[in-house]
Automatic annotation (TrEMBL), chains A, B, C:
UniProt lineage: Bacteria, Bacillati, Actinomycetota, Actinomycetes, Kitasatosporales
UniProt KW Cytoplasm keyword: no
Protein name (Swiss-Prot/TrEMBL): Trimeric intracellular cation channel family protein
Keyword vocabulary terms for this entry: Cell membrane, Membrane, Transmembrane, Transmembrane helix
Cellular location(s): Cell membrane
Amino acid sequence: MLHELFTPSVQHSLDLVGIFVFAISGALLAVRKNFDVFGIAVLAEVTALGGGLFRDLIIGAVPPAAFSDLGYFITPLLAAVLVFFLHPEVERTQRAVNVFDAAGLGLFCVTGTTKAYDYGLGLTSSAALGLATAVGGGVLRDVLANEVPSLLRWDRDLYAVPAIVGATIVALCIRFDILNAATSGFAVVAAFLLRLAAMHYHWRAPRAWNRRSAAAEE
Amino acid sequence: MLHELFTPSVQHSLDLVGIFVFAISGALLAVRKNFDVFGIAVLAEVTALGGGLFRDLIIGAVPPAAFSDLGYFITPLLAAVLVFFLHPEVERTQRAVNVFDAAGLGLFCVTGTTKAYDYGLGLTSSAALGLATAVGGGVLRDVLANEVPSLLRWDRDLYAVPAIVGATIVALCIRFDILNAATSGFAVVAAFLLRLAAMHYHWRAPRAWNRRSAAAEE
Amino acid sequence: MLHELFTPSVQHSLDLVGIFVFAISGALLAVRKNFDVFGIAVLAEVTALGGGLFRDLIIGAVPPAAFSDLGYFITPLLAAVLVFFLHPEVERTQRAVNVFDAAGLGLFCVTGTTKAYDYGLGLTSSAALGLATAVGGGVLRDVLANEVPSLLRWDRDLYAVPAIVGATIVALCIRFDILNAATSGFAVVAAFLLRLAAMHYHWRAPRAWNRRSAAAEE
């Protein structure tokens, strides 16, 4: 029952939108790294599907959705083709891409948490796995591109916190038995708006205390 | 039945040859990176077994073949020992290593696709997983060595395309119900020859369009 | 039966100690890499739980212990908080951290080997997986921090060999049917002392033969 937060076709369409925008971010990084057309496709696939793949391996949902639903596999390829031919135009719409990426982040942290709970994980673990679903693809993207994951860098706007908030709202809704289309929609929107605000106001997470003095010692 | 493309012992021997040459490439990179003897062994194991390990986790074949067949585990160690003592000689035979590596590529894309289909994946997913089987170990090798995966770089001869062709031939043969030792042998040889030709003629995949102008803007 | 090397509560406490010290090493690297508070938490979690997660995926123990036992998940967060506020003090106790890390190494290679054997793997594979349990988290930590894994570098004191020795002792004890709390405790202590000695005497593994002449050629 938990599965059916939205009608299946609505859920599936939302998934594909999230996958598409995540794939765009992977393909754009591949272009910046000067990869060839195949590298663009690989980075698009990994960014879009990596988080969900990790979640499915952990909860034992094999074969993962990424390999059992053809749409999940083909959507990133479409994003790769688009970026291959039109990347200057796509980069110029970076703001729009960022907005969609924020939507994907909100969506995936909610569906990831729900799916993990459906497979029997506890509430805390489910929320952690929802977070991993939302941010895992981006981490894999950066590892393959041989860069420090932007998720971990202090000089990037908050990315994990919105996903943590979204996943936590879902976990609390499950805890109090009020998870439905409305409340999970609220969780998606909360994470989405928080990420937009973080980008707009350049919110950042603190580094370790005494960092400055420690750096001076070096 | 699909499993039995070749007699089991022939299949197993071919697997070990592919694992051995992949392990050689991993061990040689470890020597170039100045790793110690243990780093050489780890990189040999990861390069040789990483692709198959990923495939087995995805299709739910646990424990993976890499951990249930002792020969799969020991073969990379033999390659590591060989490279440890004789690496200048092995590097001098780089051309021969490349030819064997091409054979491993052809073999693994075919057996990977077949095994994935046997475990119930669709044709497209099976071909994708066949490709991942063939190239996954090399990607893991480069990630562990902290280098940009050579699979993704535009300045390397085509590596993925031969594996894609081999996997696609197998998928088409399954689709039209004509997969047997002859047709899958043909797929192996096609991928093998294509990779040899790519190395000989330095075929490369294109980068994103307008790359030059985009680079000039930077 | 093999599971019950120690009483469950003793075993669990030892696990948490190992997880805690591994998490400290991850959090300290995150501080050195200038990551934000979230990056510190992620690196603490990955370092502490990565090896066991890999083992559990390979043997098909899903969901992995890291996601089914809340203590496993929360302990690294405590380590992250400690390092966040007190990292200069923690770094000053680096020697103590190293001693605990050696204890974690000894413990995890033993419990990893035992658990893998319990799940039906062969003796060699079990020992290999015990080694992977002990060192896997550190490798993932370095990959995420975009550094060459210190496990693979020749200029670091022996780290893998103590774990190999501990795992091998366990495998031999299983082989000769003498595995019990005493013998597995002996394996833990052997790996622990070997690692301490390697740090004290700066034991290192050899690089490939002829390395110097090969380097001169470059």
